[in-house]
Amino acid sequence: LGDLGGFTSHGFGINASGQVVGESDTADFNTHAFRTAGTTLLPGDDLGTLGGLTSTAHGINATGVVTGWSDTSGGNTHAYRTAGTTILTTDDLGTLGGTANFSHGFGINATGQVTGDSASGSVTHAFRTTPTGTINFAADLGILPNGTSSFGRAINNSGQVAGYGDTTGGATHAFRSSGNGAGILALTDLGTLGGSSQGFGINTGGQVVGASNGKAFLYTDAFGILNLNSYLDAASQVQFSTWTLSAANGINDSGLITGFATDSSSVMHAFLLEPDVSSPTPEPGAVALMAACALAGTGVLRRGRKRPFPTQIL
């Protein structure tokens, strides 16, 4: 994609139309958020800032609305949701009122709801805005039982948020929030594979992916938190025997999962998992959790008629 006149650029999100958002150095050595309109970065793709020097973009929905965060003219960092082709002061989502005066936008859904984190008093809380609203008291997602802080990272079209927060003893656990219109707002502790866990992605079905104890996980309502390393098909186990799936960062409605793996030489590799429809559909139950994914590492991907991941498991 190139850059905005500097030396480096990073892509963090993409929508169904292929528009990419991220950040790039500019000619004056600042970092600005961008949203592509074509196949290369052009000056017109620079989203600008909220009046400060730097900005970044992390999420984009199907209509091209972008969220991220930016320096403000007052020297603070605030989340934004774009209404047009550039970041304007009117796009500033504000904060939860914390003493540190910061917020970050990480995920956005089809209606424009944004999730992320913001200072709340002396701690940090996850938030979920309304489709057109700012960050306010009603947007605060709260914390896990006995925790103090929480962080929102992804949101689906039902308003369910995936993220993580601290719990008793300071351990970090992944969570999934209740959706829009669910009545009492609640964060569900998704558990861990031992140690801590963080939720990074969520699909329309409410399936969450993330990382726990150095392993990529998938959470489903039927089977709880699963170590994805334990559910590779036989061919992938052989071909990628030196790899450990370290973190899963995103999952789509077809059950495709992406993230990164670490090999025995500590080299990191991007991966793509897809449901393995060549295996017989197992019966429900723990013993029936057969290999449900095939690993794509060096251009190798098990092909087949795509079906959503839960259909394959159940």
Short structural summary:
The chain has helices at residues 234-239, 309-313; strands spanning 5-14, 20-26, 31-35, 46-48, 51-60, 66-72, 77-81, 92-94, 103-108, 114-120, 123-128, 140-142, 150-155, 161-166, 172-177, 187-189, 197-202, 208-212, 215-220, 224-227, 244-251, 257-262, 268-275, 293-296.
Q: What percentage of the residues does DSSP assign to strands (E)?
A: 35-45%
**Mean of pLDDT:** 88
Task: Supply the helix-strand structural class.
Answer: mainly beta
Number of helices: 2
With strands numbered from the N-terminus, the spatial order across the biggest sheet is: 1-2-3-4
The gyration radius over C-alpha positions equals 20 Å
Largest sheet: 4 strands, antiparallel
How many beta-strand segments? 24
Morphology: globular
Helical fraction: under 10%
Q: Which regions have little confidence, pLDDT < 50, spanning 5+ residues?
A: 280-292, 297-314
User: H/E series, N to C?
Assistant: EEEEEEEEEEEEEEEEEEEEHEEEEH
Distance between the termini: 40 Å
Structure description:
This protein is mainly beta. 4% of the residues lie in helices and 45% in strands. It has two helices and 24 strands. It has helices spanning 234-239, 309-313, and strands spanning 5-14, 20-26, 31-35, 46-48, 51-60, 66-72, 77-81, 92-94, 103-108, 114-120, 123-128, 140-142, 150-155, 161-166, 172-177, 187-189, 197-202, 208-212, 215-220, 224-227, 244-251, 257-262, 268-275, 293-296. Strands 1-2-3-4 form a four-stranded antiparallel β-sheet, with no helix packed on it. Strands 5-6-7-8 form a four-stranded antiparallel β-sheet, with no helix packed on it. The chain is globular and about 55 Å long. The chain starts with a strand and ends with a helix. Residues 280-292 and 297-314 have low confidence and may be disordered.
